[in-house]
Amino acid sequence: MLQTERVSIAAVDGLLVSDRPSLTQQIGRYVQYSASKIDDVELKIERLRTLDIFALRDRWKQLYGHAAPHYMRHEFLLRAVAYQIQVEMFGGLSAQTKRRLRQIADELRKGKESDLFTSPKIKPGTKLIRSWKDETHIVTALEIGFEWKRKRFNSLSEIARKITGTRWNGLLFFGVKRRPSGNKNALKRTEAANA
Q1: What pTM, to 2 d.p., does this model score?
Q2: Cα separation of 158 and 171, whole Å?
Q3: Is 117 inside a domain boundary?
Q4: For the residues of 126-193, what is the DSSP string, one character each?
């Protein structure tokens, strides 16, 4: 029997979880796996909880191809091995997700964590002007939220959706935040060559 379903997941304590544990834990994809394979993975992960640290280190070596660092504690080894079992069965993170995680780690190492998760601050009274289909739209930033056509909105995205009829990142739509340019690696190589 094959199960096909669009599922969403959450990472809790390092393990992928779903409110329906028999489902495959893939982020936003349609997947097909036999119920027996899914049950097999769940059983393998459950068995990990009974292993001591030496057995977990052996399992790590089988999965990763090298010895586990000696400083790793039992709980972390258990989670890392459980994750790798799921990766082998269901696939790992996308290249885009890996790039974003590396970017976050780099920013945190540089001490720029405040820049990572905050959107640009717009001072109250600032007017944002955007033309769309021959109509000019003026939005005023308030202490809390925004005003457009004498109505209050919680976000610029709400206003952008009203204007266009489709979902938009409001900061991008109003030009507060720029869309990332194409290939950043190519840009770095060009800058290095010109230096």
Answers
A1: 0.43
A2: 11
A3: no
A4: -EEEEEETTEEEEEEE-SSSEEETTEEES-HHHHHHHHHSS---HHHHTTSSPPPPS-HHHHHHHHHH
DSSP class of 23: S
How many whole angstroms separate alpha carbon 23 and alpha carbon 8? 10
- The CA–CA distances, whole Å, from 6 to 29, 76, 85, 98, 126 equal 6, 29, 21, 22, 42
CA 44 to chain centre: 26
Residue 152: give the domain boundaries.
127-173
- Residues contacting residue 123 through CB under 8 Å, at least 6 positions apart: 141
Considering its fold, how many domains does the chain have in total?
Answer: 2
Please tell me the distance from the alpha carbon of residue 140 to that of residue 33, in angstroms, as a whole number.
51
pLDDT tens across 56-102, in order? 999 999 999 999 998 999 999 999 999 998 888 888 888 888 888 88
